[in-house]
Specification:
heterodimer; A: 99 residues; mainly alpha; Helix Hairpins; elongated; B: 681 residues; two-stranded antiparallel ribbon; 28 helices
Chain lengths: 99, 681
C-alpha cells in the first residue's frame, strides 16, 4: 500500500467534513462534520506514523479522539440548550451576533 | 566632691531641658511653666555651688598653685578628615566662677519675674526664653572648644532678641530687638573669622586650651595672630557693647526689667569680656599686653577706656532710670575690657564677678520702683522722686548697689575697681589708670544724680507708691548682701578669689612678659576713694542744695553749653551715624541699584517670559491643540465610526459564514506557505 492512498482518503474525508460544516443547516450534522475533519487528521497521523515506523502518530491520534469526545460533549450540550431556548437547531436562525 | 566637677555638664543641661518642657507643656502646668524654670535653675544653682566648693577644695596640682582638672570630653561631636571635635566641658576657676554667677543671678531673676511678670500675656514664653538663655550662657562658659563657645554665644543672642522684643506689639520694642540683634551680629562676623583663623593657626583644632598654648608658644605668624585677635575684638565690641557699637544696649532696655538685669547687665553682655579672658593667650600675644615698654597702648585698652568715658557722660543726661543703668553697664564693661587690655586679667574677671551682683541689684531695684512706685514708668524726672519713704527696702538696696558701683569702701566695687587701677599702674599703663579714676568719679556723679532723682525730693508721679511684694524684695536683699560681701573674697588683704581663679594660660602669658600681679595699693585706693567722695559730694550739693548756681540753667544761657548738651543728648549722633549714614549709605545705593535691576532686568525678564509664555500658549492652543491634536482625535473617532458602519455589514451573525472565511483564509495562507516552501528553497 502506498502512503498516497491514505492521504487521498483523508483529504476526501476532510473535504466532506468542511463542506458539512459550511453548508449544513442542522447543528448536529455540523458537529458530525467536525468529527469527519478530526478523523481525517487521525488517518493522516496514523498513516505517517506507520510509514515512519514510530508509535507517536498513534499516540497523537488517541489524544485527538479523547479531545474530540470532549468537544462533542460540549457541542451537543450547546445544541441542546439552543434547542430548549429556540425550539430549533437551524444555524441560520442563530444570528443574534449580527452587528 | 569632684563628682560636681566631672558632672558639671548637668548644669547647662537642666535649663535646656526646662526650656523644652516649658515650651511643650508650659501652658498646661498649674503655674504656666514658671515652676519648671525656677526649679531647673535652682537645681543648677545648687550644682554650681557644689562645683564651686569642690573646686575650692581641690588641691592645686599645676605649677604656682593653680588648680586643674582634666577636660571632660562628653562625646565626639563630628569628624572631618583626620580631625574629630569633641563636645567637652572645660572646668577651671573662670568657668566655675561664671557657673556660680550665672546660675545665681538667673535664680534671683527667675524668682523676681514670678512677681514682676504676673499676668503677662506671654508669661510661659518668657520663662521658656529665660531658661534657654541660661542654658546658652552656661554652655558658653563651660565650652572646651571655640565652636561650643559660638553655640552658646549665638544662643544668647537669639534669647536676647526674643526677650528684648518680649512686648513686640509696640514698634519701639521690636525695633530695639532688631537693633540689638543686628548690631551684635555685626561683631559676630568677627567671632566666626576669629574662630576660623585660630583653628588653622593652632594646627587645625578648635580646642581653646590648645589654641592658647599654640599662641603662647610663639610659633604663630604674629600678623595672622593679630588679625585673629582683631576679629575677636570686633565680636567683643559688638557683644559687650563697647564703643562704637554700644548703641544697642541702651535701646535693649525696652525688654522687661528682669531681662535687663540678667542679660543686659550681669551675664550676657560680659560674654565679650569672657571671650577675651578665655582666649587670653591669643590676645596677650597679639597685642603684646605684658611687654611693658613696648607700648603703653593697645587696641582693647583704648576701646575700653573710650567706652568708660563716653558712656559715663551719656549716663548724666538720661531721664530714664534704666538707661542710666544701661550706660553705666556699658561704662563698667569698658572697665573690664580696659583691665584685660592692660594685663589685669584677674582684676577684670573679679570686676565681672562683683559687677554682676550690684548691677543686677540696681536693675531689679529700678524694676521694683516702676512696678510699685511709678506706675510702670521709668522716667525719673516725670514719675519718680521722694520714693525713699514709700519703698524703704528698695531704697536701701538701691543705695547699697549704687555705692558698690561707685566703688566706696568696703563694698564690692571698691575692691575690684581698685584692683584694676592698681594693676594698670603696675603694668605701666598710667594713662589708663587716670582714665579709670576719672571714670570712677563720673560713675559716682551719675549714680548720685540717679538716686537723688528717684528717691529724694518730692514725688512727681501720679500713682500711690508702696513697697513691692516679697518675691521682689527678697532677691533685692540677697543681691545687695552680695554687693557688699562679694568683694571681700579679694579684699582686706585676702587673695582667695585670685587663687581660686588662677589660670595656667594667664600665668604663662605673664611669665612670658615678665609681669607680676599688683599688690593692694593704698595710695591708689585713697586717691580713687577721695575722687569718688568728691564726685558724690559735688553731685549731691548740686541737686539737693542747688549749689554751683552758675551751672543751673547753663544750657539756656550759653550756646556752647547748649550745643554740647544736645551733642550728648543725641548720643554723640552715633545712632545717626549707624542708622542713617552707614546703613543708609550702604542701603540706599545698593537698594536703588537692586530696585533698578528689579524693575528693569528681573521684572523685564519676568514680564517678557510671561508675555512669551502667553503668546506661545495662544499659538499652541490655536494651531496645535485645536488644529492638530483635537482634530486628530476627532478624526480618529469619525474614522472609527465610519469604518465600523462599513465593517458591521460583515458581522452577519451567521457562524457558517465566519467558518467559511476562516477556512478560505486558512487555505490561502497554507497555499502561500506551501508555494514558498516548494519553490523558493
Amino acid at each position: 500500500m502506498q502512503l498516497n492512498e491514505f492521504l487521498f482518503l483523508a483529504a476526501f474525508l476532510f473535504c466532506t467534513g468542511v463542506y458539512g460544516v459550511l453548508a449544513r443547516k442542522n447543528s448536529v450534522l455540523v458537529l458530525m462534520s467536525v468529527e469527519l475533519i478530526l478523523n481525517a487528521v487521525n488517518i493522516n497521523l496514523i498513516a505517517f506514523g506507520a510509514f515512519d515506523h514510530t508509535i507517536a502518530g498513534q499516540v497523537f491520534a488517541l489524544f485527538v479522539i479523547a479531545v474530540a469526545a470532549a468537544e462533542v460533549g460540549v457541542g451537543l450540550a450547546i445544541v441542546l440548550l439552543i434547542y430548549r431556548n429556540r425550539h430549533s437547531i437551524d444555524l441560520d436562525k442563530v444570528d443574534v451576533m449580527k452587528g | 566632691m569632684t563628682w560636681f566637677l566631672t558632672n558639671a555638664w548637668l548644669i547647662p543641661l537642666l535649663p535646656a531641658l526646662s526650656f523644652a518642657v516649658i515650651l511643650l507643656f508650659g501652658k498646661k502646668l498649674p503655674r504656666q511653666g514658671s515652676e519648671v524654670g525656677v526649679a531647673a535653675v535652682a537645681i543648677s544653682f545648687l550644682l554650681a555651688i557644689g562645683a564651686g566648693i569642690a573646686w575650692i577644695g581641690l588641691s592645686p596640682t599645676g605649677p604656682d598653685g593653680i588648680r586643674q582638672v582634666p577636660e571632660n570630653n562628653l562625646f565626639t561631636w563630628f569628624h572631618f578628615g583626620a580631625n574629630s571635635t569633641s563636645f567637652g566641658i572645660h572646668i577651671d576657676g573662670l568657668s566655675v566662677m561664671l557657673l556660680f554667677v550665672v546660675t545665681f543671678i538667673a535664680l534671683m531673676v527667675h524668682v523676681y519675674s514670678l512677681e514682676y511678670l504676673r499676668g503677662d500675656r506671654r508669661y510661659t514664653y518668657f520663662f521658656a526664653a529665660l531658661s534657654l538663655f541660661t542654658a546658652s550662657m552656661l554652655v558658653m562658659v563651660t565650652a572646651a572648644n571655640s565652636l561650643q563657645l559660638l553655640l552658646g554665644w549665638e544662643g544668647m543672642g537669639v534669647c536676647s532678641f526674643m526677650l528684648i522684643g518680649h512686648w513686640w506689639e509696640d514698634k519701639p520694642n521690636s525695633d530695639a530687638a532688631l537693633k540689638a540683634f543686628f548690631t551684635t551680629r555685626t561683631g559676630d562676623i568677627g567671632l566666626l573669622i576669629g574662630i576660623t583663623m585660630t583653628f588653622f593657626l593652632a594646627g587645625q583644632t578648635f580646642n581653646i586650651t590648645a589654641i592658647n598654648n599654640a599662641a603662647l608658644s610663639g610659633k604663630m605668624n604674629h600678623t595672622l595672630l593679630l588679625l585673629a585677635a582683631l576679629a575677636f575684638t570686633a565680636a567683643v565690641v559688638g557683644k559687650s557693647a563697647q564703643f562704637p557699637l554700644h548703641t544697642w544696649l541702651p535701646d535693649a532696655m525696652a525688654g522687661p526689667t528682669p531681662v535687663s538685669a540678667l542679660i543686659h547687665a550681669a551675664t550676657m553682655v560680659v560674654a565679650g569680656v569672657y571671650l577675651i579672658s578665655r582666649f587670653y593667650g591669643v590676645f596677650s600675644q597679639a597685642f603684646h599686653i605684658f611687654t611693658i615698654g613696648h607700648s603703653g597702648f593697645n587696641l582693647i585698652a583704648i576701646i575700653g577706656a573710650v567706652t568708660i568715658v563716653i558712656a559715663a557722660v551719656l549716663a548724666f543726661v538720661q531721664h530714664d532710670i534704666k538707661k542710666v543703668l544701661a550706660y553705666s553697664t556699658v561704662s563698667q564693661l569698658g572697665y573690664m575690657v580696659m583691665a584685660l587690655g592692660v594685663g589685669a586679667w584677674q582684676a577684670a574677671i573679679f570686676h565681672l564677678f562683683t559687677h554682676a551682683f550690684f548691677k543686677a541689684d540696681l536693675f531689679l531695684g529700678a524694676g521694683s520702683v516702676s512696678h510699685s512706685g511709678s506706675h510702670h514708668s521709668f522716667d525719673m524726672k516725670k514719675d519718680m522722686g521722694g520714693l525713699r519713704k514709700a519703698m524703704p527696702i528698695t531704697f536701701a538696696t538701691f543705695i547699697i548697689g549704687s555705692l558698690a558701683l561707685a566703688g566706696l569702701f568696703p563694698l564690692a566695687g571698691f575692691w575690684s575697681k581698685d584692683e584694676i587701677l592698681a594693676n594698670a599702674g603696675h603694668n605701666g599703663y598710667a594713662i589708663f589708670m587716670v582714665v579709670g579714676i576719672i571714670g570712677a568719679m563720673m560713675t559716682a556723679g551719675y549714680m548720685t544724680r540717679c538716686v537723688w532723682l528717684t528717691f529724694f525730693g518730692e514725688y512727681r508721679g501720679h500713682g500711690h507708691p508702696q513697697e513691692s511684694p516679697k518675691l521682689i524684695t527678697v532677691p533685692l536683699c540677697i543681691l545687695s548682701f552680695m554687693a557688699i560681701v562679694a568683694g571681700w573674697l579679694n579684699g582686706f588683704g585676702l587673695h582667695d578669689f585670685g587663687s581660686w581663679t588662677a589660670n595656667p594660660v594667664v600665668d604663662a602669658a605673664m611669665k612670658l612678659g615678665h609681669a607680676t600681679e599688683a599688690k593692694f595699693s593704698l595710695p591708689t585706693a585713697l586717691i580713687s576713694t577721695v575722687a569718688v567722695l568728691v564726685a558724690i559730694g559735688f553731685a549731691w550739693a548740686y541737686y539737693e542744695y542747688h549749689a554751683f548756681g552758675f551751672l543751673h540753667g547753663l544750657t539756656d544761657r550759653s550756646h556752647a553749653a547748649k550745643a554740647s548738651y544736645t551733642f550728648i543728648w543725641e548720643k554723640y549722633y552715633l545712632d545717626t551715624l549707624w542708622t542713617d549714614i552707614v546703613v543708609g549709605s550702604i542701603k540706599k545705593p545698593i537698594a536703588a541699584a537692586f530696585y533698578w535691576v528689579d524693575q528693569k532686568v528681573i521684572n523685564g525678564a519676568v514680564d517678557g517670559a510671561g508675555i512669551g509664555a502667553r503668546l506661545t500658549g495662544e499659538f499652541v492652543y490655536r494651531y496645535i491643540d485645536q488644529d492638530v491634536i483635537d482634530k486628530a482625535i476627532n478624526e480618529t473617532g469619525i474614522g472609527a465610526e465610519e469604518g465600523g458602519s462599513v465593517l458591521r455589514r460583515l458581522q452577519t451573525g451567521r457562524v457558517q459564514q465566519y467558518a467559511a472565511a476562516f477556512f478560505g483564509i486558512g487555505v490561502v495562507i497554507i497555499g502561500i506557505g506551501l508555494l514558498a516552501l516548494t519553490h523558493s528553497f
